[in-house]
Amino acid sequence: MSQRAMRQREAVIPAVRNRQWVLTFPRPLHTYLAYFPHALTDALDLFIETLRYHYQRRCLPAAPSPPESFDVDYINAYYRPRYPHDIGALTSVQRHTDALSLYPHFHTLTTDGLFVARSSPQAAQSTLRPRAPVDDAVFITAEPLSSEDLQEILVLYQRRLTRRFIRRGYLRPNVDGLPAAEQTFSLFWGAEPPSEEEQQLLKCYAASAQLRHAFGPRAGHPLELDLADETSDRPSSHELCVSYAGFNVHANTVIEAEDRDRLEQMCRYIQRPVIAKDRLKKLEDGRFYYAFKRQWKSGARGIFFEGPDLLERLAALIPPPRKHQTRYHGVYAPHSRFQRAIKHMTTRFEQALSHQARQRRHVYWVLWAELLKRTFREDVERCPHCASTLQRISLITTPEAIIALIAYDESARGPPN
């Protein structure tokens, strides 16, 4: 997590303003999106398309050659191949809540603006090359976002997602032959019944989403919550947070271009692991207690698990095989035509911050000392007495020698259990 966030800061995300978008889905879609990863991918791709169209309308009027129309078909079919432009989007697909329940949602970190090719020689050519690389780009920052803009984005996304799910067959009509205005749809789970293994997995999904026991004598009963004496007085509404038809989007977090440390912290946050080990405790009676990060409105502060219940939660949160949980879109995509320009912009800014570090050859593994320094602000290579740099004397790997050195130093703690 820390190493990936470091690489995203130094080699992926340029020094421009970024915004975090958090998209959640209606409750009936939680189990469906977790069970069908291709439906989840379609939902994410459409969300990126909706955000791209929003930034196109906000930023392209300030482009060197603005479009004649903002019709989505005109922009994508005619204008975009001739005048290259795109956003950058980094998405972490999260599947859990504070209670370790199944809750698929997106944390998307996008550029708060649009990258536009500085010069577009293809505009005057009769033969277009849609994959021709862009060597130089300029960033157009979008105007401040309002709640009305956010509501418009969410309504457009909900309607487009419904149409796409119908077109892909995820939603099927309940009665054939009815007019479109009177037709109702249901989620399509497949023509063949699921196997025994899939049925057990669906039980885990359904029980996890509803905070209930999946198996055993208490199957279907709710799990025990740790309720406080008073309910939470935390406000229910936030700035730039809207809901529509069960969907919810939050976009109030903005990171300025110069705040690279906060950008790296945000990359670590959106890609955090499922379980926070400091909040999971084993009680004397053999049960497990998992504390919430914040107290819920109902007053719940944590949740109790039996051993099998905890395994049920973890089984539901395991992502499907061969499906990435961190995905790149727009100018961050591996085959984007803006890759050369974005890499130049990113490395140029990082070189100004740490010139010597960027002179090293590119490595995919970072030293543990550097990770500890970046993550926990602990410089293990600096002497605590004189603040000078420690020198490496030898590498000790035998357990006997390590135990002897720990026993020699009275202030050193013992080995971990």
Tell me what you see in this structure.
The chain is of the alpha+beta class and 417 residues long. The protein is 36% helix and 19% strand. It has helices at residues 2-12, 28-35, 37-59, 72-82, 147-168, 196-209, 260-270, 307-317, 339-353, 355-358, 368-376, 399-408; strands at residues 18-24, 85-86, 88-96, 102-111, 113-117, 137-141, 171-173, 185-187, 225-227, 241-244, 247-255, 280-282, 288-291, 300-305, 326-330. Helix 2 crosses helix 3 and helix 3 packs across helix 5 (147-168). The chain is globular, with a radius of gyration of 25 Å. Mean pLDDT is 86; it is low at 356-361.
Features:
globular, 4-stranded antiparallel sheet, about 425 residues, alpha+beta, 12 helices
Outline the secondary-structure elements:
Elements: H1 2-12, E1 18-24, H2 28-35, H3 37-59, H4 72-82, E2 85-86, E3 88-96, E4 102-111, E5 113-117, E6 137-141, H5 147-168, E7 171-173, E8 185-187, H6 196-209, E9 225-227, E10 241-244, E11 247-255, H7 260-270, E12 280-282, E13 288-291, E14 300-305, H8 307-317, E15 326-330, H9 339-353, H10 355-358, H11 368-376, H12 399-408
Antiparallel strand pairs: 1-4, 1-11, 2-5, 3-4, 3-15, 5-6, 7-8, 9-14, 10-11, 12-13, 13-14
